[in-house]
Amino acid sequence: MLKQSLITLVAICALTTAEAQRQRYNFNADWNITFADPDTNPTAEAENVTLPHAWNEDYSFMVEIRQHPDAEVWYRKTFTLPDSDAGKHVLVEFEGARQAAEVWINGHRLGLHENGVMAFGFDLTPYINYAGANVLKVRTDNDWTYRERGTDTRFQWNNSNFNANFGGLPKNVWLHVAGDIYQTLPLYSGLGTTGTYIYGTDYDIAGHKVTVHAESQVINASDKAQRVALQVEVLDNDGRLVSKFKGSSQLIAAGDTAVVGASRRLSGMHFWSWGYGYLYNVRTSLVAGGRTFDTVETRTGFRKTRFAEGKVWLNDRVLMIHGYAQRTSNEWPSVGMSVPAWLSDYSNDLMVRSGGNLVRWMHVTPWKQDVESCDRVGLIQAMPAGDAEKDCSGRQWEQRCELMRDAILYNRNNPSILFYEGGNESISREHMVELKQIRDRLDPYGGRAIGSREMLDIDEAEYGGEMLYINKSGKHPMWAMEYCRDEGYRQYWDNYSYPFHQEGAGPWYRKAPADIYNHNSDELAIEHIRRWYDYYVQRPGQGRRVSAGGVKIIFSDTNTHGRSEFSYRVSGVVDPMRIEKEGFYADQVMWNSWVDIDYSRTHIMGHWNYPEGVRKDIYVVSTDPVVDLLINDSLVARSTQAEYRFLHTFQNVTFVPGTIRAVGYSDLSGTSASSCDSIETTGPADHLQLTLVESPNGMVADGADMALVQVEVVDKEGRRCPTDNHLITWKVEGPAEYRGGIAKSPDFDNYILAETLPVECGVNRILVRSTTTPGTVRVTASARGLGAAGTSSGERAASSIVGPNPSGWSGNGASTNREWTSAEVSWQTRPVPGEVNAGLSTYIAGAALPCRLDRGETPLTPSYTDRFETIGIASAEAGTHSGEAKCSFDDNELSEWRNDGRLSTAWITYTLDRPAAIDQISLKLTGWRQRSYPLEIYAGETLVWKGETPKSLGYVELPIEQPVEARTYTIRQVGSATDKEAFGQIVELAAPNAGELDLYKSADGDKVKGELRIVEVDFLRRLN
After folding, report:
1. H or E, element range at 549
2. Residue-level pLDDT at 447
3. Is the N-terminal amide bond of 99 cis, ω within 30° of 0?
4. Nearest to 400 by CA among 387, 409, 388
5. What is the pLDDT of residues 996-1023, one digit of tens each?
6. Percent of the chain with pLDDT over 90
């Protein structure tokens, strides 16, 4: 006892004499960039920058991805620690570098980081100069063909098709200063430490209760044993203290590492959800002898998840996944991925506003800023580690495991991550098990599923789903990883609007017509509706085996592999400046609910300004089954037959100036109006209108903050002119840097950094970046051929842009015989909060950003109604290969039953668990996208269905108009199948596998006449 008391006394004395309060510094200021080692080439030309900053940012969207420059580039920074940090431990945290980063401090080499994706850190303490200046130097190398030095192995994900190459230090850097005993950072690469882990258990969603756990890895770097405990403070989203509790104390020997923890059940909790980014600040502090020291603050949230029965539950409510497979770079023109935190929120929140509930980052882990942004806006994330489009082995697989380890540790406190992705292609069972073990070791309580793309036959995967097709499952959920790969440029309204681009016109792709990559805006939106319908009809409530949803490829047009006339991909529902296309509004209508339609919404596609005499189809996307179309309050037509559940088409409507309006009715009788939309015809272009979009907290003069300035060409009443293409000349005055925008250009450089660029569809935007000097910024936009000037000085629209529906028309573009018209907007940039001193700042921009709570807490009501029940299959007998008949109902979409190619054996009879009157048969037939099978279906001896199966991207639904109760059902092929591709060029990069069931190309499979092949069958009985 005496010995223990002496140890405790020594510990208290040590803590008293070496105050150990943690300090986190923003380390982004005052860097310079050179193309030669500044120590050996002191006269090398240097560029002074604030991080995050890719040295090759100018090329973002200027050139196609393979032309992104790569080189060895040096980043260098001089800094001085304040006197209060003397003698403490100093750690540097890099959120990432591309591709490799070799780091020195004061001439001492710290190490090399090479994966190009994940965060890493180093301990500067042994070499730090506490009394004066310190020099940190980083040699970066973003070679497209970079090889790991120790093994001469390429990193699979350093790929010039999808991983945009923004080189150098395009992410944030932080400096941490702590005492001799401190909580570690979650940086396994470089430091080998695991940090703090916050999680919840025993959720009571309806009662708003959860048990909160906090664990921190602690290093005792002193020369004395220390007895410490972890004290936890939980503060709500408004900064109010919810609870304060402490764990038991633990003795940590000198030089040792230990994990300390504490937990408590809390009441009155708010649970993070889709569109409800409710976050808590959890402060974990080490305490001893009544003193509190080394406090770490973690911004996190709590939510309950479940993944089973083919479905995903969030806070006890089933959620059907709908969202986007977005390139991880999430890039912008002329600045790449290196944007301020508020602009990440602006972009990611637009996904939520479109109705998206999940973003699947593609191929590599997102940077921490985007991860934290999704927390704030309430956007679920699927987090990959790193890969290309195939499994791998040897050192490349080890690299993937190491990256997954680092990514999980770094991001396991972020509630928006619900999925860890093991690969953008199927991986082996052994590899899936290995990744699952990493998850279980590092994040056992995070409530996250780990899986991979496909994984249709691997039960160890906790989720899966193909790239393009519709999968169903009664086990782990299946959702499509990147459906609807079509492309369309924002400016191309339709065939009748300037610039009169004809639907599908454009260059060929892979020596074939490429209509689907050169859509007009309305046709691209219609394709979104068609493809989403495939998933909607297989949603939860449609029987035991269901689809968990899917994500459409690309949210914003991206500087990666594309197939249209442009040097970048135009699959997005917004353009690179995040201006909405029609697909954005189509998604917004279809996706506003969790599963079944809860909210009515209607949107008219396009605009309402055409030359006299134009007759065209008008498309309305609506949740309502009945829609009226009116022009100037006169009924044009009523639609009672929506295509693909959401699309109402009004054919050959004659343009009449005025107002076109669509009114939706939630009842089939068309008497209860529940939603509407309208568009006005507008006059000629009259003036320019500018709108400033900046951080909710204003623009900070840190050399990295940015603002968007939107210009619209409007008529006298301020309505946007939707086909205007005026050239706009921009001028920026004051302490700010013009970074420009993007538009279609004659020389294919996309007007990057040009000070004159056109509006498209009457609108465009530019980016302006702050300098390090506060002051007044004035932006002027000028154009020829407009009327009186419009001024919007100081106007702000930080959370939204004006005009949800583009309207107005002014012909084919600007005239040159009228005077210049100008508009301007001005604003103040403010000094960095907490002065930048000797290269250090305490300002953390993301911490000051608000959470978006627009959608409210998770509803406690069910999200869907069960409409069908699945009647189980007891056994099956077939014309041949009866032993394989079970493969047609084994819930494995990589197995199939097939006959021997003879028509006489092309039948299979199923014996159900019980007699039932089946209302619908759901079939997945091999060759689904290009083969039609002539079938007859019998209930017992009664013919209940006859016809040719439609082509699909997965399942076909065969309705039984007159159900007959029977115990046996027979599916018989009665003629030769017909083959014709129905979905165009939908394979992305990897060559198709001849054995894949969608292509049905088994040996001599195209020569037989009676080949029947069934992947899965479901017998469904209607419940209501």
Report:
1. strand 549-553
2. 98
3. yes
4. 387
5. 677 655 555 556 678 999 999 999 999 9
6. 88
**Mean pLDDT in residue range 20-28:** 89
Sheet holding 89-94, edge to edge: 23-26, 173-178, 89-94, 120-123
Which residue's structure tokens are 């007044």?
776
Q: How far is CA 730 from CA 206, 733, 750, 825, in A?
A: 54, 10, 16, 11
| Beta strand ranges found along 734-805 (DSSP E) | 736-740, 756-758, 763-770, 775-784
CA–CA separation, 756 and 740 (whole Å):
9
- Range of lowest pLDDT (579-593, 607-621, 785-799, 975-989): 785-799
Tens of pLDDT, residues 852-887: 999 999 999 999 999 999 999 999 999 999 999 999
Q: Measure Cα distances from 320 to 131, 467, 501, 686 in Å.
A: 58, 17, 36, 46
Torsion of CA 367, 373, 375, 379, to 10 degrees: -100
CA–CA distance, 14 with 509 (Å, rounded to integer): 70
What gap in Å lies between CA 792 and CA 769, rounded to an integer?
A: 20
340: nearest Cα among 311, 308, 373, 386: 373
d(Cα 529, Cα 536) in Å, to the nearest integer?
Answer: 10
Looking at residue 37, its amino acid is D
Q: What percent of the chain has pLDDT over 70?
A: 92
Rounded to whole angstroms, the Cα distance separating 617 from 614 reads 10
First to last CA, the chain: 73
| Interatomic CA distance for residues 779 and 823, integer angstroms | 8
C-alpha atoms less than 13 angstroms from C-alpha of 909 in its C-beta half-sphere: 11
Only one residue has tokens 């290309």, namely 388
On the 0-12 / 13-18 / 19+ scale of CB atoms within 10 A, 73 is buried
pLDDT digits (tens, 9 = 90+) for 354-396: 999 999 999 999 999 999 999 999 999 999 999 998 999 999 9
Tokens of 567: 């040097």
- The β-bridge partners of 48 are 32
* CA proximity to 530, closest of 644, 639, 622: 644
Q: What is the dihedral of CA 428, 432, 433, 434, to 10 degrees?
A: 100
| Number of CB atoms found within 10 A of residue 152's CB | 8
Query: Does 979 have pLDDT greater than 90?
Result: no
Inform me whether the pLDDT recorded for 606 exceeds 90: yes
Quote the mean pLDDT of the chain: 92
Among 971, 742, 798, 941, CA closest to 876: 971
pTM for the structure as a whole: 0.94
The bridge status of strand 1013-1022 relative to strand 868-871 is antiparallel
Q: What is the DSSP string of 510-541?
A: TTB--GGGSB-HHHHHHHHHHHHHHHHTTSTT
Question: Strand pairing of 820-830 and 699-700?
Answer: parallel
The tokens for 101 are 């980063």
* Confidence band, pLDDT 50/70/90 cuts, at residue 986: low
Does the pLDDT value for residue 989 go beyond 50?
no
C-alpha 43/C-alpha 71 separation (Å) is 19
| Angle (CA) 468 474 476, round 5° | 70
Rounded Cα gap, residues 389 and 559, in angstroms: 19
- What is d(CA 54, CA 68) in angstroms, rounded to the nearest whole number? 11
The Cα–Cα gap between 329 and 559 comes to 9
Q: Are strands 820-830 and 873-878 parallel, antiparallel or unpaired?
A: unpaired
Distance separating alpha carbons of residues 517 and 571, to the nearest angstrom:
8
Q: Is the pLDDT of residue 749 over 90?
A: yes
Helix, strand, or coil (residue 432): helix
Sequence-distant (6+) residues with CB within 8 A of 177 are 22, 23, 24, 25, 81, 85, 88, 89, 90, 91
DSSP string, 111-168: EEE-SSSS-EEEE-GGG--TTSEEEEEEEEE--TT-B-TTT--B-TT--TTTS----E
